[in-house]
Design goal:
- By secondary structure, this protein is mostly helical.
- It contains 14 helices and no strands.
- The two termini are 25 Å apart.
């Protein structure tokens, strides 16, 4: 069911729209957490390290799917806000076709160069074969991941955040059960967790695409929409390419950081693999809320209601603040117990590594969450240059400092310290860009 985000109290509108998105991404993260949980508990520490090691490379593929999701979501939100339903449908068809081509190329790349990528990040020999096995199966499932992400972007553009939540809740729960069946009952090892994700994502993707076309069929247009439009493709690319570059460079940065971490051995890799899953659940959740704010921004700009954007920023900031505080308390004081989901009590090095990681990073969740709200407004406004400046500042600082600090007496802890520094500086930049655009001078707002 579509929802107009241009009417009503912005605080109420954003809470009702973003909370299902927040829940959706929690369930989406359960895919990766389930893989790591089952690998660590039922196969062994090396299996957990292998899944975590491959995960950093899979983030490159996720970056492209994320960019296609955001491009489609923001552009179709604008068309929905302006009631241009013919262009909205053309934007959806254009996204599906162009994304299919991109996905095919990425699959070819991943299958041919997967081993090369694992060697490039100094993957230890004792986890190399399992890392490559997991990565190859993941690559085979890229079409499901791509088209499911596009479907959720379309739902969000139409103001429907509940449908993807329902899909993810069911498929993520099923993924945990299938993981256990494949690994414990069928003794499939690392391949079992990979095939479980492949199967569950495939089912949810097919169902989501079917529902999308059912929704689109209910939207009436005066003229028949084109199946492909280069003009709209240009609009999509204007939003999607910077978002892809952002996520890709973040992924490359994470791979560089992973290569540094790999030098400290399997214990540290395993501890980081478990802790980073918990960290990514939070960051991805805030990113998804930022994406929802992008939809809110694009719909309101499309409807010519720019004054609602400032209220949206205030509401979004209050929302993420309320969410981040209990998470910080949980991770700082109970992080070690959460790591028991992935690791046995005997894995002392891994547990100590993961606990330190969470205690260093989690107090700064309030900071990074504010940045992601501001980024959501910048992206929804089409201000991609400002968005990119802030993002790359964060990335470059984190990678450079991780490499430098890892060589000090801090060791692996020095790597974790790089995150908060990058977050703080990038948040200041994003907030300055937002205030300059929407508070200081409305004439700076770029038309979609």
């Amino acid at each position: 069911m579509s929802k107009d985000l241009t009417v009503g109290d912005p605080r109420s509108v954003l809470w009702k729209f973003c909370m299902p998105l927040f829940g959706s991404v929690i369930f989406q993260q359960l895919y990766n957490i389930a893989d790591s949980l089952v690998a660590g508990k039922f196969i062994g520490e090396n299996a957990l390290a292998a899944v975590g090691n491959s995960y950093e490379i899979t983030l490159i593929f996720i970056a492209f799917a994320f960019g296609c999701n955001i491009g489609c979501s923001v552009v179709t939100s604008g068309f929905f806000g302006s009631r241009d339903y013919t262009s909205l449908k053309t934007a959806v068809y254009t996204t599906l076709i162009s994304s299919g081509i991109i996905c095919g190329l990425l699959m070819l790349f991943g299958l041919v160069f997967g081993g090369t990528l694992l060697n490039a990040i100094n993957t230890p020999s004792d986890i190399f074969s399992d890392s490559l096995l997991y990565l190859n199966i993941y690559v085979l499932g890229l079409p499901f991941m791509f088209f499911y992400n596009i479907a959720t972007g379309i739902f969000s553009a139409l103001g429907d955040s509940k449908t993807p939540f329902i899909f993810l809740a069911i498929s993520s729960t099923a993924n945990i059960l299938v993981d256990i069946v494949f690994v414990v009952c069928f003794k499939m090892g690392v391949s079992g967790v990979a095939w479980a994700t492949f199967l569950c994502q495939g089912v949810s993707c097919v169902l989501a695409i079917c529902v999308v076309f059912k929704h689109l069929g209910k939207i009436k247009t005066q003229t028949k929409p084109e199946l492909f439009s280069f003009k709209i493709l240009k609009k999509l690319a204007y939003i999607a390419i910077p978002s892809i570059l952002q996520q890709t460079f973040i992924s490359v940065g994470n791979i560089l950081i992973q290569s540094v971490i790999n030098g400290f051995g399997a214990g540290v890799i395993a501890g980081y693999s478990g802790a980073v899953k918990l960290n990514n659940m939070v960051i991805t959740s805030f990113t998804t809320i930022g994406n929802g704010i992008s939809n809110y921004t694009a719909q309101n700009l499309g409807a010519g209601k720019r004054e609602r954007i400032r209220e949206g920023f205030k509401a979004g900031t209050l929302m993420v603040f309320k969410i981040s505080i209990p998470v910080i308390i949980l991770y700082v004081f109970f992080g070690r117990y959460l790591l028991y989901l992935f690791l046995d009590s005997s894995a002392k090095i891994a547990l100590n590594t993961g606990e330190t990681f969470l205690r260093v990073l989690s107090p700064f969740y309030v900071v990074i969450s504010i940045k992601l709200v501001a980024d959501g407004i910048l992206r929804g406004s089409g201000l991609m240059k400002l968005f990119m400046i802030s993002t790359f500042t964060d990335l470059l600082l984190r990678v450079a400092l991780a490499i430098l600090l890892s060589k000090t007496e801090l060791g692996a802890t020095g790597i974790w310290c790089a995150w908060p520094i990058g977050w703080v500086i990038a948040t200041v930049l994003s907030c300055v860009f937002y205030f300059f655009t929407y508070v200081g001078n409305d004439s700076k707002i770029k038309e979609m």
